[in-house]
Amino acid sequence: VSKGYEIGYAASIAATQLSLVYGQSVTKDEIRYDPSVFQNANISDDISREQLTISARQTIRASTIFFGKAMYQKAQYSSGQFSGQTPGLIPDFVLSLGLTQQFDARTWSGLYLNHVSRQNYDASADIMAKINQMPSFNAMDAFLSRSYGNIDSKFTIKNVLGGVNASSGGYGFVSAPGATGASNYYYYPSDPRSLHLSVNYKY
């Protein structure tokens, strides 16, 4: 159960659009994965969040659009013995940049870049302050889309940079060959560089 509020402002000046949004919330009984017991559970401590998001969009010569969004967020336990500590998998800062280009009425291309800051691993709250943080990472995608009458097609390259990034990870008991194991870091890697083609037909 979350209670919160948001307040924001948006403005358009010629070909420029700007927006600013600030919000706060407090969540009770949030369900989070607890690596110490290998299952999801309602946590007894409240979690408070603050978030500030700035967005901008600029149209250039009617065919080129540049946009960006910067989000700063702060989350922490606001009650209980871990009060003031940041839970896992909540980055402080996320930056998104994009550029789209329209070649004609039927053809578009685009490039997107995301930066995710360091964040805590998903781990038991009692050891969170004693372990490392997940490193920050960058990811880039590109696409080319074209329509042919009722047919829309899109070719996308995911993870253009080919980086080996972990979008999620934790710290807990990790099994090893030979029925052995120990507490260690583990990762859920992002997709490698890959090609995607989609075709849609409108009836």
Can you describe what's shown?
The protein is an all-beta fold and 203 residues long. Helix content is 0%, strand content 67%. The chain is built from no helices and 15 strands. The strands form 4 sheets. Strands 1-2-5-6-7-8-11-12-15 form a 9-stranded antiparallel β-sheet, with no helix packed on it. Strands 3-4 form a two-stranded antiparallel ribbon. The radius of gyration is 21 Å and the shape is globular. It starts with a strand and ends with a strand. The model has no long low-confidence stretch (mean pLDDT 92).
Order of strands, main sheet, comes to 1-2-5-6-7-8-11-12-15
Indicate the proportion of strand residues: over 45%
Total of helices: 0
Annotation, overall tally of beta strands: 15
Largest sheet: 9 strands, antiparallel
Flag low-confidence runs: none
How do the helices and strands follow one another from N- to C-terminus? EEEEEEEEEEEEEEE
Average predicted confidence as pLDDT: 92
Structural class: mainly beta
**What's the helical proportion of residues?**
under 10%
What radius of gyration results from the CA coordinates?
21 Å
Tell me the distance between the termini.
42 Å
Per the principal axes of the C-alpha atoms, what is the gross shape?
A: globular
